[in-house]
């Protein structure tokens, strides 16, 4: 059985429960869901095409050399930098990462990429500075980069 | 909404352009690209839809306000247990998280709690089905579990660095004020030192010899209004001592010239018991005259005093 059907069943049950308990909140939830769908689906469209391009044109050797287990700290640094620079929805991070894994990228590198893609964003710097201040932004982003780096280094031994 | 649609069109166009470029070179390959893309999408379709529903439900039922209220109420290790786990279940992007952490900070959350909160938020539990589908459960669970220690380490390290950089709340202790390198209130300290020779006064000794000790916690423009000096003057007139004066002033805000009330704690120590009501009244009057709010006033017992000393 398709695991997606289990999820959608759970989601539907939760939706019904929510509707029974509070109609207004459920309405709000549905609006949010719609907005997120509108926000994320086009990004996923783009990401899935990118995945297709990667799977057809990028060879396993290339990815394995650049981001594989043998790539060491450079692979992790590349993963982190790409994650930090990419303007990418968190929801799109995982499908993209999956296609890189299929091409031989190491889990440590993917951990680095996914973590910085979610936690560090060049695009969010102005917002973070505005809300939290310059020093906070600098410390948080640099420290996140460093922490992710060290965990990514050891991630291979955990998997 | 307009922005959403605009972005949606841009992404779809970008995707089509990439695909079009591939098609220009080789139609066969462009078909394979489309096949891979369709397969990935069809395989994850229901997961994607259910993830959207999960996020919608969570955002409707768990509001940031509820969370910040709760984070404000809890204290100590519970606060960190909360800040390092609960945000994992939140949705939203970095853009939505900063307004929330700003309001947390304004409500008095420490930098460490906020850093822990943001880092833990990257757990992204609503996306777990999607993550597991593309990266496997082992990776997913491991990444999610690693979030908790990472968030806590982030909080402690980040706060240590930020405190060094931004400046910690300054603590001025009366019996060793002159030794500390403190920029704010420096003049006050000099005056105090010159007139009353506070450096030589040993707070612990005074407390141990005192018959009555009352601890005050006050809030107001303590340094701006020269309260330490005024208190010291008063005490020398009436024969009691002000000891263990500690002033907490956020130096960050002082540097921006914003008026900010500071908080202070001091102990009024009296050698005799008969004059103590007069002393207390004088101190209260002085504070009242200067618009200083007395948050707490308590008589210290022997045991408490020993502990304080």
What does the model show?
The complex is a heterodimer of chains A (159) and B (309). Chain A has 159 residues and is mostly helical. The relative contact order of chain A is 0.10. Chain A has helices at residues 3-21, 23-57, 60-67, 72-85, 90-102, 107-119, 125-132, 134-158. Chain A folds into 2 domains: 1-43; 58-158, no CATH class. Chain A is built from 8 helices and no strands. Chain B is 64% helix and 13% strand. Chain B is elongated. Chain B has helices at 2-25, 27-61, 64-73, 76-85, 94-106, 111-121, 128-135, 137-166, 186-196, 203-209, 227-238, 251-255, 276-289, 302-308; strands at 170-173, 212-220, 240-249, 262-270, 293-299. Chain B is built from 14 helices and 5 strands. In chain B, strands 1-3-4-2-5 form a 5-stranded antiparallel sheet. The termini of chain B are far apart. Chain B folds into 2 domains: 2-165, no CATH class; 170-308, LOR/SDH bifunctional enzyme, conserved domain (Alpha-Beta Plaits, 2-Layer Sandwich), CATH 3.30.70.2690. Chain B is of the alpha+beta class and 309 residues long. The chains are: A mainly alpha (159), B alpha+beta (309). At the A-B interface, helix 1, helix 2, helix 5, helix 6 and helix 7 of A face helix 1, helix 2, helix 5, helix 6 and helix 7 of B.
